[in-house]
Amino acid sequence: CFVCSKMGAAITCWMRGCGRSFHLPCASQGECVTQYFGLYRSFCWEHRPQQPLQAHPEQKRTCSICLETLDNERAFKIMVCPACQDAWFHRNCIQKQAFHAGISFCCPCCHNKELFVLAMLKMGIRLFRRPPSWESDGGWKQEDQLHRQCDVATCLCPGGREQVEEEGPWELLMCFSCAAEGTHRGCSCMRMTSTRWECSGC
To answer: Which candidate, 98, 138, 159, 185, has a CA 20 to 30 Å from the CA of 150?
Structure first.
Protein backbone atom coordinates (compact mmCIF):
# COMPACT_ATOMS: atom_id res chain seq x y z
CA CYS A 1 0.00 0.00 0.00
CA PHE A 2 1.50 3.32 -1.04
CA VAL A 3 -0.24 4.99 1.92
CA CYS A 4 0.67 2.76 4.88
CA SER A 5 3.45 0.68 3.25
CA LYS A 6 1.91 -2.58 4.50
CA MET A 7 1.10 -5.72 2.51
CA GLY A 8 -2.34 -6.79 1.29
CA ALA A 9 -3.31 -3.72 -0.77
CA ALA A 10 -6.01 -5.10 -3.08
CA ILE A 11 -7.04 -1.86 -4.84
CA THR A 12 -5.04 -0.58 -7.80
CA CYS A 13 -5.37 2.81 -9.47
CA TRP A 14 -7.52 2.53 -12.60
CA MET A 15 -5.20 4.74 -14.66
CA ARG A 16 -3.22 2.64 -17.12
CA GLY A 17 0.47 2.58 -16.28
CA CYS A 18 -0.04 3.64 -12.65
CA GLY A 19 1.27 1.04 -10.26
CA ARG A 20 -0.08 2.52 -7.04
CA SER A 21 -2.09 0.15 -4.85
CA PHE A 22 -3.81 0.81 -1.54
CA HIS A 23 -6.15 -0.60 1.10
CA LEU A 24 -9.73 0.69 1.07
CA PRO A 25 -9.43 2.07 4.65
CA CYS A 26 -6.28 3.95 3.55
CA ALA A 27 -8.00 5.61 0.58
CA SER A 28 -9.17 8.72 2.41
CA GLN A 29 -5.81 9.29 4.13
CA GLY A 30 -4.04 8.91 0.78
CA GLU A 31 -6.58 11.23 -0.92
CA CYS A 32 -7.71 8.45 -3.26
CA VAL A 33 -11.17 8.24 -4.82
CA THR A 34 -13.27 5.09 -5.13
CA GLN A 35 -16.41 5.35 -7.26
CA TYR A 36 -19.23 3.25 -5.79
CA PHE A 37 -21.12 2.65 -9.05
CA GLY A 38 -20.63 0.99 -12.45
CA LEU A 39 -17.17 -0.59 -12.60
CA TYR A 40 -16.27 0.56 -9.07
CA ARG A 41 -13.13 2.25 -10.29
CA SER A 42 -10.51 3.57 -7.88
CA PHE A 43 -7.93 6.30 -8.46
CA CYS A 44 -4.81 7.38 -6.58
CA TRP A 45 -4.25 10.98 -5.48
CA GLU A 46 -2.54 11.87 -8.78
CA HIS A 47 -5.16 10.46 -11.16
CA ARG A 48 -8.38 10.99 -9.20
CA PRO A 49 -11.18 13.03 -10.85
CA GLN A 50 -11.15 16.75 -10.11
CA GLN A 51 -14.05 19.17 -9.98
CA PRO A 52 -13.79 22.29 -12.14
CA LEU A 53 -14.07 24.84 -9.33
CA GLN A 54 -14.61 28.53 -9.98
CA ALA A 55 -12.10 30.05 -7.59
CA HIS A 56 -12.70 33.47 -6.03
CA PRO A 57 -9.61 34.17 -3.89
CA GLU A 58 -11.09 37.30 -2.36
CA GLN A 59 -14.19 35.48 -1.14
CA LYS A 60 -14.01 33.23 1.91
CA ARG A 61 -16.00 30.05 1.38
CA THR A 62 -17.82 28.20 4.13
CA CYS A 63 -19.13 24.65 4.19
CA SER A 64 -22.90 24.77 3.56
CA ILE A 65 -23.41 21.95 6.06
CA CYS A 66 -21.14 22.61 9.06
CA LEU A 67 -20.64 26.36 8.29
CA GLU A 68 -16.90 26.21 8.96
CA THR A 69 -14.43 28.02 6.68
CA LEU A 70 -13.00 26.11 3.70
CA ASP A 71 -9.30 26.86 3.55
CA ASN A 72 -8.09 25.34 0.27
CA GLU A 73 -10.56 25.50 -2.60
CA ARG A 74 -8.85 22.81 -4.67
CA ALA A 75 -8.09 20.40 -1.82
CA PHE A 76 -9.24 16.78 -1.82
CA LYS A 77 -11.52 17.52 1.13
CA ILE A 78 -13.51 20.26 -0.63
CA MET A 79 -16.46 19.69 -2.99
CA VAL A 80 -18.93 21.95 -4.77
CA CYS A 81 -22.40 21.56 -6.25
CA PRO A 82 -22.05 21.70 -10.07
CA ALA A 83 -25.58 23.04 -10.50
CA CYS A 84 -25.53 26.19 -8.35
CA GLN A 85 -21.74 26.59 -7.73
CA ASP A 86 -22.74 28.32 -4.48
CA ALA A 87 -22.91 25.23 -2.28
CA TRP A 88 -19.46 24.15 -1.07
CA PHE A 89 -18.84 21.28 1.32
CA HIS A 90 -16.25 19.33 3.21
CA ARG A 91 -16.04 15.81 1.74
CA ASN A 92 -16.80 14.30 5.16
CA CYS A 93 -19.84 16.56 5.64
CA ILE A 94 -21.43 15.67 2.29
CA GLN A 95 -20.72 11.96 2.86
CA LYS A 96 -22.59 12.12 6.17
CA GLN A 97 -25.40 13.97 4.41
CA ALA A 98 -25.59 11.21 1.79
CA PHE A 99 -25.72 8.56 4.50
CA HIS A 100 -28.66 10.17 6.29
CA ALA A 101 -30.54 11.41 3.20
CA GLY A 102 -30.55 8.07 1.40
CA ILE A 103 -32.80 8.23 -1.69
CA SER A 104 -33.59 11.89 -0.92
CA PHE A 105 -29.95 12.97 -1.39
CA CYS A 106 -29.69 16.28 -3.25
CA CYS A 107 -27.87 19.60 -2.97
CA PRO A 108 -28.79 21.09 0.44
CA CYS A 109 -28.84 24.58 -1.07
CA CYS A 110 -30.41 24.46 -4.57
CA HIS A 111 -32.01 20.99 -4.20
CA ASN A 112 -30.72 19.91 -7.60
CA LYS A 113 -30.63 16.14 -7.77
CA GLU A 114 -29.56 14.94 -11.23
CA LEU A 115 -26.36 16.94 -11.78
CA PHE A 116 -25.50 16.93 -8.10
CA VAL A 117 -25.80 13.16 -7.58
CA LEU A 118 -23.78 12.38 -10.74
CA ALA A 119 -21.01 14.72 -9.62
CA MET A 120 -20.92 13.29 -6.10
CA LEU A 121 -20.78 9.71 -7.41
CA LYS A 122 -17.92 10.61 -9.73
CA MET A 123 -16.03 12.23 -6.84
CA GLY A 124 -16.34 9.11 -4.67
CA ILE A 125 -19.32 9.88 -2.45
CA ARG A 126 -21.13 6.68 -1.55
CA LEU A 127 -24.94 6.78 -1.86
CA PHE A 128 -27.46 4.61 -0.04
CA ARG A 129 -30.69 3.21 -1.51
CA ARG A 130 -32.90 3.52 1.55
CA PRO A 131 -35.39 6.00 3.02
CA PRO A 132 -33.96 9.04 4.82
CA SER A 133 -32.87 8.32 8.39
CA TRP A 134 -35.28 10.92 9.76
CA GLU A 135 -38.19 8.92 8.29
CA SER A 136 -37.04 5.39 9.06
CA ASP A 137 -35.18 5.29 12.37
CA GLY A 138 -37.86 6.76 14.60
CA GLY A 139 -35.50 9.53 15.67
CA TRP A 140 -37.80 12.22 14.33
CA LYS A 141 -41.51 12.32 15.00
CA GLN A 142 -44.02 14.89 13.85
CA GLU A 143 -45.43 15.25 17.34
CA ASP A 144 -41.96 16.24 18.57
CA GLN A 145 -42.25 19.38 16.46
CA LEU A 146 -45.70 20.44 17.67
CA HIS A 147 -46.15 23.24 20.17
CA ARG A 148 -47.32 21.59 23.39
CA GLN A 149 -47.78 24.17 26.14
CA CYS A 150 -50.15 26.80 27.47
CA ASP A 151 -49.00 30.34 26.60
CA VAL A 152 -51.56 32.56 28.35
CA ALA A 153 -50.16 35.12 30.80
CA THR A 154 -51.40 33.22 33.86
CA CYS A 155 -51.62 29.44 33.51
CA LEU A 156 -54.07 27.98 36.07
CA CYS A 157 -53.25 24.30 35.49
CA PRO A 158 -51.98 22.63 38.71
CA GLY A 159 -49.58 20.51 36.63
CA GLY A 160 -48.05 23.51 34.87
CA ARG A 161 -48.02 24.85 31.33
CA GLU A 162 -46.91 21.58 29.71
CA GLN A 163 -49.55 19.32 31.28
CA VAL A 164 -52.03 18.28 28.61
CA GLU A 165 -55.13 16.12 28.93
CA GLU A 166 -57.34 14.61 26.24
CA GLU A 167 -60.44 16.48 27.43
CA GLY A 168 -61.66 18.69 30.23
CA PRO A 169 -60.31 22.03 31.51
CA TRP A 170 -56.67 21.05 30.85
CA GLU A 171 -57.18 20.11 27.21
CA LEU A 172 -54.81 22.17 25.06
CA LEU A 173 -56.16 24.19 22.14
CA MET A 174 -53.89 25.83 19.59
CA CYS A 175 -54.49 29.26 18.08
CA PHE A 176 -56.85 28.82 15.14
CA SER A 177 -54.96 31.42 13.07
CA CYS A 178 -51.25 30.85 13.70
CA ALA A 179 -51.04 27.54 15.62
CA ALA A 180 -47.94 28.97 17.32
CA GLU A 181 -49.50 29.49 20.76
CA GLY A 182 -51.79 27.40 22.89
CA THR A 183 -54.07 27.54 25.89
CA HIS A 184 -55.74 25.17 28.32
CA ARG A 185 -59.52 25.49 28.12
CA GLY A 186 -59.60 26.35 31.82
CA CYS A 187 -56.96 29.08 31.50
CA SER A 188 -59.03 30.97 28.91
CA CYS A 189 -62.44 30.20 30.47
CA MET A 190 -63.59 28.36 27.36
CA ARG A 191 -66.72 26.23 27.16
CA MET A 192 -66.35 22.51 26.49
CA THR A 193 -68.24 22.97 23.22
CA SER A 194 -65.81 25.62 21.91
CA THR A 195 -63.33 24.38 19.30
CA ARG A 196 -61.74 27.66 18.20
CA TRP A 197 -59.40 29.97 20.12
CA GLU A 198 -57.16 32.79 18.95
CA CYS A 199 -54.10 34.10 20.76
CA SER A 200 -53.78 37.79 21.70
CA GLY A 201 -51.40 38.40 18.79
CA CYS A 202 -53.92 37.20 16.24
So the answer is: 138
